[in-house]
Design a protein that fits this description.
Elements (H helix, E strand, L loop, with lengths): L1 H24 L5 H25 L5 H23 L8 H24 L24 H13 L4 H13 L3 H14 L4 H14 L7 H12 L4 H14 L2 H14 L7 H17 L3 H7 L17 E7 L12 E8 L8 E6 L5 E5 L17 E8 L11 E8 L6 E5 L1 E2 L2
Parallel strand pairs: 1-7
Antiparallel strand pairs: 1-4, 2-3, 2-5, 5-6, 6-8
Main location: other
Keywords: Cytochrome c-type biogenesis, Membrane, Repeat, TPR repeat, Transmembrane, Transmembrane helix
InterPro entries: C-type_cytochrome_biogenesis, Cyt_c_biogenesis_CcmI, Ig_CycH, TPR-like_helical_dom_sf, TPR_CcmH_CycH, TPR_rpt
Length: about 425
């Protein structure tokens, strides 16, 4: 900031002389002096004309003498007037120069304070945008500055949220818990805040959701029963307490709220299966499993051999070094024109290649989106480094192009890298 003001002052010192110096050098015009000088010049011209007329015999000697006397009388009168001391004339341009020399710097500072930013030249805080658009501070100086502001103005929910998110990002969970505690006092009816509060407290408590975090999760679900993060944490809390029925219920509801291609959905299904397995091992667990609703299970679609697509997938020898035997391989069909969600998908591993495949309606991720519902589809195979069906940079891919449902004997070679 000091450097900024020094630069501004230097620029003013350079600019001011171009404005002030021309005004300072300018002299005020004395109109009376100019008038007398003009009159004397006129008298001299008239005297010259009289002499010329006499020489040209246009005037008699008597007329010349009379005219000269009149001119001499007028000359004496002008000399008397000119000899009277003239009042010192002040130069208003110099006064204007002095005023501008004071007003330009002062006005520049006042204008900058009005429309500029005093923080513009300060070191910028390293920030990233959070899920709700709030910044994340990463420097200790910025965090301390925000803490000081919140001490003076504690009723600032945006500030507490930024502080809480920043501490969470920095894994300073005790500080994050303190910030969320202040935040929920100001905004008590926001489900996601209670969810984040529970998560931060659990991380600060050796990743345990027991106790206060469980209460906060319940509060979050009371405010928003479809809060997906709260449902995920609720299932984890249930598992930690050994309440497998509740865990299954929460996670099954979560599955219904997530899209079928959600990256972690398979992990949620695995959690549900694990909870079912643990429940079946408890006394009376099988009876409880029988009572649980099965509405979350995907609706099965009957296979239609007429529209089934068959073929073979191989991995190009040139790409063998880029793939691990345990990398996930997806073989899928999606609409050539329409939704990008797979109409049928098979999940295998690189070690299973080469392999024969069949894609049909029974593999639909959603009952309303199946092979038989489209005239043209794109069939491809992908080695997924992330383990998700969505293409990522570095994945390996091969395609059979656009085909009709029911096409048989496709040959797909995985021979390119996703850029």
């Amino acid at each position: 900031m000091t450097l900024f003001w020094i630069i501004c002052a230097a620029l003013l010192l350079v600019a001011l002389p171009f404005v002030i110096w021309p005004l300072w050098r300018k002299h005020a015009a004395n109109n009376d002096v100019l008038r007398d000088a003009a009159n004397l010049e006129i008298l001299r011209d008239q005297a010259d004309e009289l002499q010329a007329d006499l020489n040209n015999s246009l005037l008699t000697q008597a007329s010349f003498e009379q005219g000269r006397r009149e001119l001499q009388a007028r000359l004496i009168e002008e000399v008397k007037t000119t000899a009277v001391p003239q009042a010192v004339v002040r130069n208003p341009a110099r006064l204007l120069a002095i005023v501008l020399a004071l007003l330009i710097p002062l006005g520049s500072v006042l204008l900058y304070l009005q429309i500029g930013s005093l923080k513009a030249m300060q070191p910028q805080q390293i920030q990233g945008e959070g899920a709700e658009g709030f910044g994340v501070l990463r420097s200790e100086a910025a965090l301390q500055e925000l803490e000081a502001k919140l001490v003076k103005l504690p009723e600032n929910p945006d500030g507490w949220l930024m502080l809480a998110r920043s501490y969470t990002e920095l894994q300073r969970y005790a500080d994050a818990v303190r910030a969320y505690g202040e935040l929920v006092k100001l905004v008590p009816n926001e489900s996601q805040l209670w969810t984040n509060y529970a998560d931060a407290m659990a991380m600060n408590n050796n990743q345990s959701l027991l106790g206060e975090p469980t209460k906060f999760i319940s509060k979050a679900l009371q405010l928003d029963p479809e809060n997906t993060t709260a449902l995920a944490l609720a299932g984890s809390s249930d598992m930690e307490r050994g309440d497998y029925v509740s865990a299954i219920t929460h996670w099954q509801k979560l599955v219904t709220l997530l899209p079928p291609d959600y990256p972690q959905i398979q992990m949620i299904h695995d959690g549900i299966n694990q909870a079912r397995e643990y429940l079946s091992q408890q006394k009376g667990g099988k009876e409880m499993l029988a009572k649980l609703p099965a509405a979350n299970a995907p609706e099965k679609v009957a296979a239609n051999p007429a529209v089934a697509i068959t073929g073979r997938v191989t991995l190009s020898p040139a790409l063998l070094a880029k793939a691990s035997p345990t990398d996930v391989v997806f073989i899928l069909a999606r609409a050539a024109e329409g939704p990008k969600m797979p109409l049928a998908v098979i999940r295998k591993q690189v070690k299973d290649l080469p392999m024969e495949f069949t894609l049909d309606d029974s593999m639909a991720m959603q009952p309303q989106l199946k092979l038989s519902g489209f005239d043209k589809v794109v069939v491809l195979a992908r080695v997924s480094k992330s383990g998700t069906p969505m293409a990522q940079t570095g994945d390996l891919e091969g395609s059979a192009g656009v085909v009709k449902p029911g096409t048989k004997g496709l040959n797909i070679t995985i021979d390119s890298t996703v850029k």
